[in-house]
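Example record

The entry below shows one chain as it appears in the dataset: sequence first, then structure tokens.
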Amino acid sequence: MRGEIEVWSGDKLLIKEPNMIVDGAGELLADIMTASRSLSGINNTATSAILDASNYRIQAISFGTAKEAYNQGAHKMDASKASLYQSTAFYGWNRVNISGIVPLVNIASSTEYFLQQPISYQPTGMLPIAPDPSLTVLEPNIAMNAKVGGIFVSSVFPPNGQLTNFLPSAIASSMMANTVFSSTTSGLAAAALLGCFPDGSGAIPTASRYSRVYLRTDRDDSTTNIQTAGYTTIGGVFNAASSMDVSGYVNMIMSSVPRVGYSMSSTSSGLCLSADSNFSSNGVVEYSVLLASGDLGYATMYGGIYHLGLWTIDMQKSLQNGNTPPFAFRQLNNPRKYKLFCRKGLSKSLTYTDNEFVLGDLLLKWRLKFL
């Protein structure tokens, strides 16, 4: 079995490289060969559905960054950020003017606070873990040192080896409820540190999706009241389509190999599966997904994208977790537990190619040859 990825910016091919099939692929094949056919005769849908072919296909893609990134950029908390997140003016601006949560990369001065344009922040000095077929996550042994209210964020939400999806307000409020970060200000700060993709309901500028989003504080001699200045929003595709769960897995939206003339779903809706009419002879399946400029921009502020991974359902863990097939996909409390099938590590962030920042959408094509 072999595989390769291609990354396209319009009609320009940016990357074409082989991937790595990891041990999880072999485990999946073993699961397929050892699944008992007798389950099909059991008069219980949840049990017989274990044999459904969809349980043994690629079902998700995820994106990761280098280990060092988890204490840099928008993942990093410092005294200035902590003070700003406590500001009711900032919280009010954040909730009223855009629907998602604002990550902060740096504070420009004592009176101006910027969520910078992605082009003005470049993650540097980072590399993903060396290729290793025994990997079960994209980047192991991550340590996130940020604290909110003196509490390590990772003690409540341990890193899972990839970029996560806490920024949409609906996700953040649900995840922070009934935790030590349930208050407005601490929940805002914790979600902003976890990241990493923008809400999809914000208006995406048509001319340039890389518009600056900022909060500015204006003071004069007579008052210390904080005023908010203008803003523009950066929207993302993953959350617009509700295709990414809180753990960062983008859902497969096509569950079977298309026939001749089958109309392929939009790659902006999630991970798409396709194959041409001679699949039986060439065994090639292509997985495609759109990486929108807004999603890339936010990922840049959280360290960039140095990892790509394709995932299948981990049947054993899903069943042990009390879930039975068919496994529905949900953004919150996703019942699907995943097993890493193959991965790709990059020496340079996917958000920064050809010595310049990517300022538009990218199309990722990942082909696996099963024959």
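Notes for this example: The chain has two domains: 2-65+253-369, 71-237. The first strand starts at residue 2 and ends at 9.
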